[in-house]
Design a protein that fits this description.
By secondary structure, this protein is mostly beta strands. Helix content is 0%, strand content 36%.
Length: 75
């Protein structure tokens, strides 16, 4: 899924992501940045994410990865 960071608190790691498809606010899971290139997020940042079983945004990734179906460089 894709979305935009609505708000992120660098002190607590809490925040909200707005999902592109329905504009729903999704709470960030406590482990949302685990294994990610990101150490923190900024308001308005475009991200890819998955939902955990509780419906929270997790596995935050850069907003332009190959799984988006975007053209990639051919070597």
């Amino acid at each position: 899924m894709q979305g935009v960071v609505r708000v992120y608190d660098t002190q607590t790691g809490e925040g909200l992501v707005v999902r592109d498809t329905d504009r729903a606010d999704l709470v960030l899971a406590p482990d949302a940045l685990s294994g990610s290139l990101f150490r923190l997020l900024r308001q308005g940042q475009r991200v890819n994410f998955e939902l955990d079983p509780d419906g929270r945004a997790t596995r935050i990734r850069i907003g332009a990865e190959p799984d988006l179906g975007l053209p990639t460089a051919q070597v």
